[in-house]
UniProtKB/TrEMBL annotation:
Protein family membership: Belongs to the multicopper oxidase family.
Keyword entries, A-Z: Apoplast, Copper, Glycoprotein, Lignin degradation, Metal-binding, Oxidoreductase, Repeat, Secreted, Signal
Known role: Lignin degradation and detoxification of lignin-derived products.
One annotated GO biological process: lignin catabolic process
NCBIfam families with a match to the protein in the record: laccase
Entry protein name: Laccase
Compartments, record wording: Secreted, Extracellular space, Apoplast
Catalytic activity: 4 hydroquinone + O2 = 4 benzosemiquinone + 2 H2O
PROSITE patterns, per the entry: MULTICOPPER_OXIDASE1 (PS00079), MULTICOPPER_OXIDASE2 (PS00080)
Length: 562
């Protein structure tokens, strides 16, 4: 009896500790026009609370986050909390017309959700049009009180957000491209924490500076918020130790260069262990599509040691070539998950759904475009188009037909030599992609394995694919056509990296696996924003489970209506 009372007391103490460590963190976001000066010109942009980037949100695992969004901008608006699982809170996920209708100008909506079973660096951004070019910010989830990091505690934590800048209204840039059927204009600059750095015109003093003390260690929470570019990042004379990606802890990996795709996050430990001085940090594009235009500029900031002479010229790192695929592939494939670490989920071994999904660029018919076609993109030859009258999640919850079709195929309609550009470009059955709103329906708690296969129809490039609502294990990656006999032998089933966004190698493939344990409608799309309106996307409809805690609750009363 005494032993029973002892264990009961311990359980109550643990429960009380867990409850006490959870809080409600509340913010108000005012989205409105902001006039900023960059690259010698003034530009009106859409921003949150008058800042670029927007506010950094800091919470602890287990907290509830409430963000009241007031749309004072002239555009429809939604916000996405990139990488947040949204367990039983799909109504707060944010992709336009997938989980909600947009917040109209003058409207408001409160996003409310719990941060459960994950910690690390995530971020938030607009999920309408190209507005996330300036509507974005960091979301940092720290461990609960009393729970340490699985690495030595750093002396300071610093968000590093990469952005992309146009000397134009980004909504106009996108609309002009869609009207013409051609690719949009490339950006004019990259930024670090909203600042372009001293290589750009009129930007000598618009440069991010990180002040450090020799002997101390800094946790850099790196976020690629750029719209259309994967990036190389280096700090002169310094190595970095990767300890997490996409809010999932990793086996520590020491590297001189970080490669990061749009939507991805990387946490690194930076030891201030060099001679006292000033060192440039720099980022530029990794461009894998041969011949395609891209922003070939470089943004940079400065790491300044305490006591460094102000007159000293900072040292510049030697950057990789823009098309250095071997360096990118080495970085992406050398990262492994911290098996047994906080929130580690073992790789599921029983597979319920096998999918082989091709993805790439093509064309669609456009009578109003100059040449009768426009650039398009597809997955398994289905080019995604958003509904216009009701969100897909509302259609799922209220059982409304006609909004989407449950016919996204498990395999492509035609088998072909996927990465052979010389053959595929001449095949009209591959080149023209039909438009649809097709989804894959999954039973609750089913396990999905997807082979993501790049194609070479119009062009071949690295595609950063983002899955809402889940993390997935990256079992393997490679080049060429996936071999279902040989390549499974390469699977890492012990400690693969866990991500929400995967850069599928240029002219290659990646295999991911996840468990569909969250009811709702979950978007999967390329996080190059140039490709999203072209249709490089699909969605998963995860059915409700058998119990109340596996069933999607009703929508909040203030959910925007179409």
């Amino acid at each position: 009896m005494l032993r029973l009372l002892f264990w009961l007391t311990c359980a109550l103490v643990l429960l009380a500790s867990s409850v006490a460590s959870a809080a409600i963190v509340e913010h108000s976001f005012y989205v409105k026009n902001l006039t900023v000066r960059r690259l010698c010109t003034e530009q009106v942009v859409t921003a949150v609370n008058g800042s670029l980037p927007g506010p950094t949100l800091r919470v602890q695992e287990g907290d509830t986050l409430k963000v009241h969004v007031f749309n004072k901008s002239p555009y429809n608006m939604t916000l996405h909390w990139h990488g947040v699982f949204q367990l039983l809170s799909a109504w707060a996920d944010g992709p336009n017309m997938v989980t909600q209708c947009p917040i109209p100008p003058g409207g408001k909506y409160t996003y409310q959700f719990k941060l459960l079973k994950q910690e690390g660096t995530l971020w938030w951004h607009a999920h309408v049009s190209w507005l996330r070019a300036t509507v974005y910010g960091a979301l940092i989830i720290r461990p609960r009180s009393g729970h340490p990091y699985p690495f030595p505690k750093p002396d300071k934590e610093v968000p590093i957000l990469f952005g992309e800048w146009w000397n134009a209204n980004v909504v106009d840039v996108e609309n002009q491209a869609l009207a013409s059927g051609a690719a949009p204009n490339t950006s004019d600059a990259f930024t670090i924490n909203g600042l372009p750095g001293d290589l750009y015109p009129c930007s000598q003093n618009r440069i991010f500076k990180l002040k450090v003390q020799k002997g101390k260690t800094y946790l850099l929470r790196i976020i690629n918020a750029a719209l259309n570019n994967e990036l190389f990042f280096k700090i002169a004379n310094h190595n970095m130790k990767v300890v997490a990606v996409d809010a999932g802890y990793t086996v520590p990996y020491v590297t001189g260069v970080v490669v990061i795709g749009p939507g991805q996050t990387v946490d690194v430990l930076l030891a201030a262990d060099q001679e006292v001085g000033s060192y440039y940090m720099a980022a530029n594009a990794y461009s894998s599509a041969a011949g395609a235009p891209f922003d070939n500029t470089t943004t940079r900031g400065i790491v300044v040691y305490e006591g460094a002479p102000t007159s000293a010229t900072p040292i510049m790192p030697l950057m990789p070539a823009f098309n250095d695929t071997p360096t990118a592939h080495k970085f992406f494939t050398n990262i492994t998950g911290l098996a047994g670490g906080p929130h580690w989920v073992p790789v599921p071994r029983q597979i319920d759904e096998h999918m082989f999904v091709t993805m790439g660029l093509g064309l669609s018919i456009c009578p109003t475009c100059s040449n009768g076609t426009r650039l398009s993109a597809s997955m398994n030859n289905f080019s995604f188009v958003s509904p216009t009258t009701l969100s897909m999640l509302q259609a799922f919850f209220f059982n409304v037909s006609g909004i989407y079709t449950p016919d996204f195929p498990d395999t492509p309609p035609i088998k072909f030599d996927y990465t052979n550009a010389s053959i595929n470009a001449l095949n009209p059955s591959l080149l023209i992609t039909p438009k649809s709103t097709s989804v894959k329906v999954l039973k609750y708690n089913s396990t999905v394995e997807m082979v993501l296969q790049n194609t070479a129809i119009l062009a071949v490039e690295n595609h950063p694919m983002h899955l809402h609502g889940f993390n997935f294990h990256v079992l393997a990656q490679g080049f060429g056509n996936y071999d279902p006999v040989k390549d499974p032998k390469k699977f890492n089933l012990v400690n693969p990296q866990s991500r929400n966004t995967i850069g599928v190698p240029v002219g290659g493939w990646a295999v991911i696996r996840f468990t569909a344990n969250n009811p709702g409608v979950w978007f999967m799309h390329c996080h190059l924003d140039v490709h999203l309106p072209w249709g490089l996307a699909t969605a998963f409809v995860v059915k409700n489970g058998p119990t109340e805690d596996s069933t999607l609750p009703p929508p909040p009363a203030d959910l925007p209506q179409c």
